[in-house]
Records
---
Amino acid sequence: MRGVKRVALVTTVLVAALVVIGFVLENQQGVSLSFFGWATAQIPVAIFIVLALILGMLIGPLLGVVVCGRRRKLPSAGRG
């Protein structure tokens, strides 16, 4: 059973890597983003999306830790 799980995991990772590579290769047109007067140089749209993905993968778990930490610190109401 452990071997089947390992093969499934490796297959999933390889498929995900192929999808990302395909996405990057298909989105090579240059774009420039502007936000509150700040503008970027023209770089491929795939770079912006991959950076947003990485940023979300970093911020999401951090927000989860903050929210769960607050819930644990709150006093329990109604328990007597």
---
Amino acid sequence: GLGVTAIAYLWWRKNRWQLRQVGTVSQLLIYPIKSCRPVSVEEAECLELGLRNGELDDRHWLVVAEDGHMVTGRQEPQIVLIDVNRHGGSLCLEAPGMEKISVSFSLPKTNKVLDCRVFGTDIQGRDCGDEVSRWLTSYFQSSQPYRLVHFEPGVMKP
């Protein structure tokens, strides 16, 4: 046991971690809404659940179908054309042929909490309201309603 420890120590001492540049970050992108266009940022915090820049958290907003399953470019390819930006205290969505729509970063706590399914994992997200739901449903030209939900750490159904 002691011999193995001594050999390991000698190897570690010889091959100690040394910092060296292995790449250069040329652009930081945050995807506030899963599968929509990214937002380019100058800096970001690295958190347990992804990047953050101000109110923008990476993939904390999600488009879901009526049954709560996430919607990606596989189900609705035109979702990748939705531009997402921030303006003041709101998340702004723009898409071809659609008027711009804004959703407040501070959603009312009275908005419903919906059960959602993301890659086989059950989560909950706060519904962003009927106005953005109508916008998404119209954009996807669907008879099935779509909802935008926001993941809030610690959110629980009342």
---
Amino acid sequence: MTADNLGPEPAMVLVRPQMGENIGAAARAMLNFGMTRMRIVAPRDGWPNPAAVAMASGAGRVLDAAQVHDDLAGAVGDCDFVFATTARSRDLTKPVYSPERAMEMAAAMRAQGRKVAVLFGPERTGLENDEVAKANAIISVPVNPEFASLNLAQCVLLTSYEWRRQATDVTHADDGMAGADWASAIEVEKLADHYEARLDEAGFFYPPEKAPGMKVTMRNMWPRFSMTRQDVQILHGVLRQLLRGKP
């Protein structure tokens, strides 16, 4: 299935949010990771909220497109699968997933054209049990059990980040050396010869009985540096400059 035929990204549903600033911060977190579908249920201070707009700082389009609902049932009525985020243990029998696993599932459901929502509770109390009961599964963030409280925007950001990892190709490592002009084995060998000869002349390999082992250790060191040709040239030049004018 091509990207154009995929179902929509998960809807991020803020249930009874208390502060406009947190709604705006959540919008910024969403847009950071390419998410735009926000739904707001019964915001305490009404809607629209100037504080949310000010805090969104460039992510106003997420707020402009946000759906506002009076109740949770209306917010998720068109969804096929609902996750509820909570840090508290519940007495409800539901599967519990990490944000990573939950968004893996969301991506798989998206590929099937199914609609997914993620619920986030109000800042002070989180979701109530009757709200969690409306979800198919729980997302639990592995936080410090002695300080498990997450800011609303932080929780939205964590989930949005995990969605981004599933929805796009992520570069997990880049050493910045793509296209580098790497030194050949013979160039590294000649550099090792140069340093060994000069250090031998300077009496570095002492006492004599330890010299062979010291030389092997140094020979083993050079290939580990993964040098470019420029690196090799510089190191030759450093040694020549240090010895310039010396007998």
